[in-house]
């Protein structure tokens, strides 16, 4: 029997503003779409926190034995600066400033994005589509919206008619906004805009002569609107109606609101059952911003090359720190906070590592099944990682009592306890035991040094064929040797 059948999971749905019992559209299967990064700069720490929230959600679904199709896109068209319909494309602007091709910018920062997420032990999504790889699908959606009378072409651009859509639907339902208030609180069009209404948004923009990124369409050589790409990719891989759509709180309006409108205009049905939004990350009590210097990149945390933290911190410590707050809560990052998190992380890892020394008794004096269910209850309550961490430290207390022989567990309960604490700490929360990693690195270094010594002996014996074979096989494994006056060193 799958594990999910014995658990009662509730998710906070941004659409209703309430926690709701999670019921997938197809039993045992989940379709989840999360808005990915716009790859025009290094991934920032707030992005990491958002994607980490959904990484844990993905991990917990897998732990519950769900089959999950997790789609997280890459925005490589580069939506307009300031996320409005006028101005310069973010990726094109970066390419112009650095004198690069736009796809060089995309490649550089996509690699950075993946490298950082790998450092933080993220599971890869099931599918990672790109906006530029789905231009045809976006054009087809625009055609459908025009045919339905909700889209209109003006001077080579195409816009979504929000007022027309709102006659039969509710634009603003997700963000709690009213179309009349939105129209009243925006300035009148100055006569130079092609829009019929101030709230209308671009489905397709005609490219100006200087615009680098452009594609042919029935209306003009141009590029798709920012909101359209997620509608195209989510529906292509998850269908017109799927379970979960997630992203940062800042995307709720206008991005996700516009996605809902586009989907409903095309299909006549609501696209998503559960909308989920992760909250923001602040630094020393203030909003992170490069312009003010109140900013730190994920890699700067790992290297210690910054003016904000007292030293470098591992990715697993940073991950543990972020998961100490609920994903819907604002989290403030500071040196004091991550120093405290490092102490807690080490305490947890030391306790888990000491489990191997505990010997089972004849009876159990701790109720392990009840403790395990409290761990599940935490995650079943809208993925409440801070409560789960509190339960893991209750497990640490159990470990200390067992070590001091003040409590005992029989063989079955001890095995269940060890498995559960490993599952929640490593599989669900995605933590990594650094001591285990360090031990693995020590073993690797010892083996490579042994091969280097064997190579040296082969060279001293003028057995150059064996010497070259050792070198070539190490290179094939990604290990480079460097011969110098002080001897041979290696790098990975």
TrEMBL record:
Placement of sequence motif 'KMSKS' region: 287-291
GO molecular function terms attached to this record: cysteine-tRNA ligase activity
Keyword annotations of the record: Aminoacyl-tRNA synthetase, ATP-binding, Cytoplasm, Ligase, Metal-binding, Nucleotide-binding, Protein biosynthesis, Zinc
Domain of life per record: Bacteria
Catalytic activity: tRNA(Cys) + L-cysteine + ATP = L-cysteinyl-tRNA(Cys) + AMP + diphosphate
Matching CDD domains: CysRS_core
Binding positions (ATP): 290
UniProt-listed Enzyme Commission number(s): 6.1.1.16
Location relative to the cell: Cytoplasm
Nucleotide-binding keyword on record: yes
Main localization (coarse): cytoplasm
Pfam families for the chain: DALR_2, tRNA-synt_1e
Requisite cofactors: Zn(2+)
Motif ('HIGH' region): 37-47
Record-annotated Cysteinyl-tRNA synthetase class Ia DALR domain positions: 374-440
Cofactor binding note: Binds 1 zinc ion per subunit.
Keyword NADP found: no
Binding site for Zn(2+): 35, 230, 255, 259
Quaternary structure (record): Monomer.
NCBIfam families documented for this protein: cysS (TIGR00435)
Entry similarity comment: Belongs to the class-I aminoacyl-tRNA synthetase family.
Name the UniProt record assigns to this protein: Cysteine--tRNA ligase
Organism: Flavobacterium ranwuense
